[in-house]
């Protein structure tokens, strides 16, 4: 009887050990889970009941425990401090495939170890299919919101005839998105309203994510905490030139704002040298590419930026021209912040469309297990403003 009891005990210990080893090392066999192709046939999850207009939360805690089986960047336990932060994606139901790809890459490269929540915003209700297929990719909290009509659509005080004529002219000139009214709406919304959405109000930090972007490297440190702990306000990866035809009068209105509100301008230590080559007389068209940005929501909600956006919005340039949120955000950050409050995330490998940022040092590239080729990074191509940023900060 004693021999049998010992045999049962040894067998149970062996089985428990094998289970523990499997849970620990199985992810190493396939650290990124399903292939891209598998996203087209994700299992269906039963939708939650109810159909609220501006808020819908998925199941799961705000900061769930880190997933087991980390592949080498260190597990972050649920007791570790996190910033009051979220990912924000503006998307339509037709963007589902691209949204899935972005979330999956973000989870694999970063968020499966940190558990930050997501907010998805749309000018109409998200479909149940969109919601359930996003939820299956992450144990983190996910919320889906509808953008208030007054924040999205062209306001009544805009001269519709003038706006339509200008959009038609830009379309004839082949100005990218110049004739697309929805794109004008989006640029204005991202410039002045996304941070006011009810689902976003509870957060202090955000990471903007767009459909169909790529994250080339593991992101081992928490960018939100880095920003918070180092007095940073705005973070970027790529810097590019704006299309001249989209911002014909933008700088004129910026200079008007500077003259009317000198109290908001950091005159001595700002980043004016990044956006102007002649001490502010003209705009050199450089801007941070805002499809990726990690930034403070309190900055956009503050008095300085509120005054800045109100001044630009009153000029009507989001519709009479095609002012983008990227130059608007960039000019605001360059003028209203100290330059040392703006941070380049060199270690975050990132791609949007054909333009890609790849860490330039071998040590950083290797530590991130990057898929990108540093030699093909957009940073030092003729269309990049990265050299101007490096010159400004002495990099």
Topology:
Elements: H1 2-29, E1 85-90, H2 96-109, E2 118-122, H3 128-135, E3 142-146, H4 149-152, H5 160-172, H6 181-192, E4 205-208, E5 214-215, H7 223-229, E6 234-236, E7 239-241, H8 250-260, H9 272-275, E8 286-288, E9 293-296, H10 297-301, H11 303-315, H12 317-320, H13 325-336, E10 342-344, E11 350-352, E12 355-357, H14 362-367, H15 386-393
Parallel strand pairs: 1-2, 1-4, 2-3, 6-10
Antiparallel strand pairs: 4-9, 5-11, 6-9, 7-8, 11-12
Helix pairs in contact: 6-13, 8-11
Model description:
- A hairpin with a 2-residue loop joins strand 11 and strand 12.
- 38% of the residues lie in helices and 11% in strands.
- Helix 6 runs parallel beside helix 13.
- The protein contains 15 helices and twelve strands.
- It has 395 residues and is of the alpha/beta class.
- The strands form three sheets. The protein has a seven-stranded mixed beta sheet. Strands 5-11-12 form a three-stranded antiparallel beta sheet. Strands 7-8 form a two-stranded antiparallel sheet.
- The radius of gyration is 24 Å and the shape is globular.
- The chain starts with a helix and ends with a helix.
């Amino acid at each position: 009887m004693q021999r049998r009891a010992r045999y049962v005990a040894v067998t149970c210990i062996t089985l428990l050990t094998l289970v523990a080893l499997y849970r620990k090392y199985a992810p190493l066999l396939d650290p990124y889970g399903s292939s891209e192709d598998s996203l087209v046939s994700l299992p269906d999850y039963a939708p939650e009941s109810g159909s609220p207009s501006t808020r819908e939360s998925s199941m799961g805690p705000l900061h769930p425990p880190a997933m087991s089986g980390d592949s080498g960047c260190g597990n972050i336990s649920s007791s570790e401090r996190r910033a009051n932060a979220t990912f924000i994606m503006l998307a339509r139901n037709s963007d589902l495939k691209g949204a899935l790809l972005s979330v999956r890459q973000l989870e694999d490269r970063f968020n499966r170890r940190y558990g930050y929540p997501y907010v998805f915003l749309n000018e109409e209700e998200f479909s149940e299919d969109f919601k359930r297929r996003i939820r299956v990719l992450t144990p983190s909290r996910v919320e889906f919101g509808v953008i208030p009509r007054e924040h999205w659509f062209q306001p009544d005080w805009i001269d519709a005839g003038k706006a339509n004529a200008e959009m038609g002219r830009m379309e004839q000139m082949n100005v990218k998105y110049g004739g697309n009214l929805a794109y004008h709406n989006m640029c204005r919304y991202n410039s002045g309203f996304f941070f006011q959405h009810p689902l976003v109000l509870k957060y202090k930090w955000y990471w903007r994510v767009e459909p169909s972007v790529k994250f080339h490297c593991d992101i081992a440190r928490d960018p939100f905490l880095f920003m918070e702990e180092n007095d940073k306000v705005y973070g970027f990866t790529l810097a590019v030139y704006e299309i001249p035809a989209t911002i014909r009068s933008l700088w004129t209105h910026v200079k008007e704002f500077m003259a009317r509100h000198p109290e908001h301008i950091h005159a001595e230590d700002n980043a004016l040298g990044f956006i102007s080559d002649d001490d502010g007389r003209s705009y050199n068209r450089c801007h941070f590419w805002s499809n990726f940005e990690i930034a403070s929501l309190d900055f956009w909600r503050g008095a300085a930026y509120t005054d800045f956006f109100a001044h630009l919005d009153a000029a009507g340039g989001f519709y009479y021209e095609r002012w983008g949120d990227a130059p608007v955000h960039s000019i605001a950050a360059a003028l209203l912040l100290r330059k040392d409050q703006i941070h380049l995330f060199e270690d975050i490998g990132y791609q949007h469309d054909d333009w890609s940022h790849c860490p330039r040092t071998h040590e950083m590239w290797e530590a991130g297990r990057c898929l990108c080729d540093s030699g093909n990074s957009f940073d030092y191509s003729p269309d990049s403003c990265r050299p101007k940023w490096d010159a400004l900060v002495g990099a």
